Amino acid sequence: MNKGLATQLKTLLSSKKRIVIIGHRNPDGDAIGSCLGLHFYLKKLGHYSNVIMPNDFPDFLRWLPGTSEIFNFEKQNQQALRSIEDAEIIFTLDFNSLSRVGDMKAILSKSKADFVMIDHHQQPDDYPIITYSDTAMGSTCEMVYHTIDALNGTENITPEMATLLYTGIMTDTGSFRFPSTTPTTHRVIASLIEHGAKNAEIHQNIYDTNSPSRMKLLGIALENMNVLPAFNSAYITISQKELDDNNFKKGDTEGFVNFALSVQGVRFAIIFIENIQESIVKISLRSKGDFSVNEFSRAHYNGGGHTNAAGGRSELSLEQTVKQFISILPQYKEALTQ
Fold first, then answer.
1. CA-CA distance, 215 to 294, in Å (whole number)?
2. C-alpha separations of 302 from 33, 173, 314 in Å
3. Least trusted range by pLDDT, from 85-94, 137-146, 208-217, 219-228
4. 0.85 cut: is pTM over it?
């Protein structure tokens, strides 16, 4: 965060305010970690703060400090609405378009609160009065750390805050292996460990708690994987029946697409997950090198994200979605095989 943005934010926070912090729909480790990390920091400054998520989050994140304080807009609608109506400042973290909050969009669009965005995705909207956007950052949690640092507040980082921010950085950088992991990222991680984040314990809590049903679902996903050598691509499909037969819980398919990307020679991987309840196919895209899945998703799947990681959705059937994908690929053959 540069000095100009820091000065604006300091001015905005110069007196005690009623604040709401919002993450995106289907929140992940970075959304939960950044929102709760900022929440605890603002409370330390004396502000009144609430965290709202548009819907529920995976069970493997429930051990994180403060998750019991989150309002789920779908399940705790009245509490969430009152918080938004009372808010003087609304922070939106880990997303940059109000389209990412589902049914909350209409309510937020009517709010007279001052909006602040902290986010690392491409092509941000212009709704906030303060926008801290940096697509070079590997995670919003790292940006929250830099925000706290710019406000001269790192001495206020507690072990709970350090745990939250470490978790978001770890999960959004693929355990520090993605290209967005920089020397600065590692310096931030070192600081968080010094402030009480227990790195080995955090990794175990996130990655080493697989249920038998999730592992069986992973086996099905790998069985369904198709490699397309002519395009250096691979795709995975999971049907609603396959989800139901394996007691699917939110978050169970997290990271499955990366197995397709790990296949030798594959530069572009995609997973199609059927969601009958919402009448969509949920799509996650990953790539290596300079092939932009952000642009691919924006062009074909009403989505977006980063150059090497993006999401989207299709309103076609699962079978039709796959057929459409295969028909699109030849347009990108040169980019994928050069």
1. 29
2. 26, 24, 8
3. 208-217
4. yes
